[in-house]
Amino acid sequence: MLISWANETTAHPVGIALVALCAIATIMLRRNYAIIPLLIMIMAIPSAQRIVIATIDFSFIRIVIIAAIIRVMFRREYLGFTMKAPDVYILVSMIWGIFAYGILYGNVGAFVFRIGYMLDAAGAYFLGRIFIRTVADLRRNILFIGFASIPMFIVFSVERVTGRNLFAEFGGVPKYTAIRDGRLRCQGPFSHPIMAGVFWAVILPWFGAFWMNKQIPRILLIIFGICCLGILLNTASSTPVMSVFFGCLAMAMYVFRSVMSYVRWGILLILLALHMVMKAPVWHLISRIDISGGSTGWHRYNLIEKFIDNFNEWWLVGVRSTAHWDYGLQDVTNQFILEAVRGGLLSFVLFILFIYSIFKIIGRGIKASETNGDRWVLWGAGSVLFVHCMSFLAVSYFGQMLNAFYLFLGGSVSLAVTIIANARKNAMERARNLNETTGDQQPTHQLAPPIRNRSS
């Protein structure tokens, strides 16, 4: 579904100045701080801020991503990068998405739209792969987001009190805060209140990981956590609250890390058992979730139901619209289903394989970790991905949330790759040292001389 502000220039002078400054900073800053400008654009500028040239949208976030890619090419910061399974899956998925979406709509605009989507998603992912390679890289960026949560909490609180969005001056977000069931749903610079809430909710497992890692002062993590919780509560949405619950659950499962395969199979068997004994399908449980009041859980259940019933419509290259499936189903609030709607069964499968491959490489990294600190950080990465997967059952990502999702996903893969490589290197060095030590030692005993038979 095309966003209403597509193909329309929406640019504020302050926004233009900020994107120019961030693009220059992206190119000029040291590698350690190269993606800080992108984080600023994600957190502080509405994703609708864009310049349209010859019907091609250049959102401000996309401009900074292009600047970062130019930097990587000219500075050759891609050296040392090795392709892994998630990299292959995302590239194949994006390329297939371009062809499938183009065939589905049958015009050049559809191809251009998907190429832009690939630049936003895959571009952010590979920037994460390149610029977040170590725990120190991640710590630096999480600290920046944590400090940014303080002024953002103030801004969201002001919106809650006044009912007016301060970021509306930039354009791309409504001036007056939306109200549902008597509650203000604050969104700040984000494209939707749920996107704002989920963004800050998925940061919390990172805070938990660094709490255990002890590389960030705990008093700061407490302050950051309070601000993040304050922001997501101001969004008055059920999905962010559930994201916090799933994040806490995932982090608590650390104690069962040695038996996680049994836990996963156990959960699967429980779901199958529920599916067999319940009158409705097991995914009907989604319809019963309503934390904030006014939640559309039944809509999300019905979407899954109709998605299965209409398999013959979308399996090849997707379907142009789901509005005819049932009332209100033009709003595809499920990321997994959205992938299928935009690219068919192959796109759906590739996206699942992409997610699975990241879980797998993070799991290998956890097993290879030589310190509890590294192990906790990777567990945090897996917990964040788990929260995203649970959120996908209730919402599909768009706007700056899409960039944030792929950026830190790429960083999670690189963290696991680095930890695995370091573990292998250390193991080889230990083996080499052991061989050198044993090779230098001389035999400490001689063969005893033969015993002569005196009787002879």
UniProtKB/TrEMBL annotation:
Record field: transmembrane: 12-29, 34-52, 58-74, 86-105, 111-132, 141-158, 194-212, 219-236, 242-260, 267-286, 336-356, 376-398, 404-423
This protein's record includes keyword Transmembrane helix: yes
Segments for region (Disordered): 434-456
Keyword check for Membrane: yes
Domain of life: Bacteria
Biased composition (Polar residues): 434-445
Keywords carried by this UniProt record: Membrane, Transmembrane, Transmembrane helix
Name this polypeptide is given: Polymerase
Classification of source organism: Bacteria, Pseudomonadati, Pseudomonadota, Alphaproteobacteria, Sneathiellales
